[in-house]
Amino acid sequence: MRALLILLLTAINSQAQTYKISYDRISNGKAVEGSSPVVFTNSDKTLVTQSAILAGKASLPYEQTLVFQDQPGVFYLSAVLGANRTVATKDSTTIAGQQLELRSDRKKILGYECKLAHAVINSNSIDIWYTEALGVHGGPSVLGQRLGLVLETIRNGQFVVRARQIEKVKAFPSLPALSPLSDLLTYRDLLWRSRFTTIPLFRQQVLNFSDDAASNDSIFRFGGGSIAVRKIRFPEIGAGSVAFLDVTEQSTGDAYDRTGSVFLLPTADPSFWDALEKGVDAVPVYENGNGKKYQGMVRSGAYEPLLELMRFFTPFGVKGYNHLQLKNKVWQDSVSYRQDITDLIPAFSGKEVYVGIVIGNYDKGGHTVNANITVHTDPDSEKPGVAKVLPLFNTVNILEMRGQNYGSMFDVEKGLEVTFTLPEGARNARLRYIVTGHGGWEHGDEFMRKKNTLLLDGAERFAFTPWRTDCGSYRLANPASGNFENGLSSSDYSRSNWCPGTTTNPIWIDLGDLAPGTHTLQVKIPMGAPEGGSFSAWNVSGVLEYN
After folding, report:
1. Mean pLDDT value of segment 286-296
2. 3-state secondary structure labels for all residues of 171-228
3. What is the pLDDT of residue 96?
4. Lowest mean pLDDT among 165-169, 238-242, 344-348, 390-394
C-alpha cells in the first residue's frame, strides 16, 4: 500500500512539474544576437515565448504560442500589436498538415537521448531532434511538438535552434491574452500590418476627365479630374528605414494604356501649385531654340519641377473590360505597382507636403486608384543613404488639359539643359533618372530604340538605350488590347522602357563629387520627326541625390 502511494505521488508530481527550456539561435555556425525562444511546458500546456518578452524588452509587435495538451492538433497564437492592442487566433490546420518522417538516428542533447524526425516545409529541409525522457511536449515552434520535447531544429543545414538549458521551475508564467479570437487570416494580416507604418495617400480615387470633377475638403482635383492632390504630414522617418510606394489601378471606363505618375510638389515659391491653380503660364518656361515653350518642366532659379516618386502605365482596360472574353484568358481584377522609394525619404520625412497622382486620359469613367507609402525598419539595410534630393527636370506634361506642352524638346541638338547651383558642393552625387519614349504610330519613338546621352558640364557621363522586351508577360492585365493578324496583341510589343501595366524603374547615374558652384546637366535623345498628325515625345525626370 505504501509503495502504491509513493508511485501515485510521484506520478502527480511528475504531471505537475513545469520545465523552462532556453534556446540559442545559430546561423552558419555563428550565434544570432537578439531575443531567443524560451519554452515553458508541463503535462497540461506549453507556452512558446521569447527571452525579450520575459525581460519586458520585446519590440512591438511580438507573438506567443500556447498549446493545451487536452486539445491535440490545436494551438493558439496571441500577439501584442501596440499599447492596449492584442489579437489572438486558434489554428487547427498547421499541425495537422505536418508530415514528419521518423528516422533511426539518435544523439544526446544536454544529456537527454534524442530521436530524429525530418520534415520538408515550403521547400525547407528541417531536422527535428526531440526527447521523450521528460514526459512533456514542447519546442521552439509548433513543429514536432506532438512527438515530445524538441531540443534542436536545423533548417537547411545552416540555421540551428538548440536548447541551451533545461530548468525545473515552480510556476507556469502568466498566459497571454486569448481574446478576442480572430480568424487565422485576419490575425496574420493584422500582425503583418503592425510591423510597419502605412501612410495612406489616396483611397478609391477616380482619375478621369469630366466637367463634373470637383475638389473637396481633402482632395484637390485638376486637369478635368485627371490629377488628384492632397496635403499630407509625414512622420519623421529614422535612419535604418526603407520606404515603398504602392499603387493599385482599375479601369472604370478608359480602355487605353495611359501614363501615370505619383509626385511631390516642391514648396518653393514659385511652385507647380501655381500652374495647377492659375494655369501653365504661371511657372517658368524652358526654351531651347525649337520655337516651343515647355512650362514648368525644368529647374529655374528657386523654381523646382515636380519630384517624381513613381511612373506607371495603365494596361488596356483591366477590370472595366474584363467582359471581353478570349479562350484560356482569365483577366486580372486590378494591377498593382510597388516600388522602393527609400532614396527619396529626405524629400518628405517630417514634412508637410502636397502629394499628387495623375493618369492622363480623356475618358469620363477614367481609372480608379489606391495609393499608400509604407515605412519599414531595416537596420541591416545596405542601401547607401543620401542627405539631400534636388529635383532638376520632369517633362511629364500632367497639365496637358490646360496647355502644358509635351516633352518634345529633343528635336534639336540642345535637347534638355538645366543649370543648378550647389553653394557647398556635393559628395557622392548621383542622378535618379526615369525615361520613357512615346509616339504611338509605326515609327514613333514608343516603338523605336533611341540612345539617351547625359552630359555634365559639357562632358558625357552616361549613355544607354532604354527598352523593354517583356511586355508580353503582362497580357492578362490587358483585356482590351487589340489582337492583330500576326497573332500578337498591342500590349505584347516591346517599347521604349515601359509596358502596359508596369512601372518604369529609375536608373542611378553616378556623378561623383561635385565642386561648389554652378553646373549644367544636358539630356540628348535623337527624337523622331512628326509623321502627319503624329509626333514623338519623351517623358524624362531627373533628381540629383547627394550628401
Report:
1. 97
2. CCCCCCCCCCEECHHHHHHHHHHCCCEEEEEEEEEEECCCCCCCCCCCCEEEHHHCEE
3. 73
4. 238-242
Please report, as a single letter, which amino acid is at residue 367: H
**Pair 64, 53: CB distance under 8 Å:** yes
Number of Cβ within 10 Å of residue 172's Cβ equals: 16
Q: What is the dihedral of CA 386, 390, 396, 402, to 10 degrees?
A: 140
Q: Is 75 exposed, middle or buried (0-12, 13-18, 19+ CB in 10 A)?
A: buried
* Residue written as grid cell 485638376: 222
> What pTM, to 2 d.p., does this model score?
0.91
Does the pLDDT of residue 130 top 50, yes or no?
yes
Contacts of 307 (CB under 8 A, 6+ apart): 263, 264, 265, 266, 344, 347, 389, 391, 394, 543
Q: Quick one: pLDDT at residue 88?
A: 97
Mean pLDDT over each residue of the chain, to the nearest integer:
94
Q: Which of 451, 441, 415, 450 is nearest to 535 (CA)?
A: 441
**Residue 269 pLDDT:** 86
CA 22/CA 458 separation, integer angstroms: 65
Strands (E), 395-458: 416-422, 426-438, 452-456
Are the CB atoms for 498 and 273 separated by under 8 Å?
Answer: no
308/434 Cα distance (integer angstroms): 9
| Contact indicator for 150, 136 with CB cutoff of 8 Å | no
Count CB atoms within 10 A of the CB of residue 106.
10
Contact 491, 499 (CB under 8 A): yes
pLDDT at residue number 8: 31
State the burial class of residue 323 (Cβ atoms within 10 Å of its Cβ: 0-12, 13-18, 19+): exposed
Gyration radius (Cα) of the chain, Å? 30
Q: Average pLDDT, stretch 294-305? A: 96
Cα distance between residue 258 and residue 261, in whole Å: 10
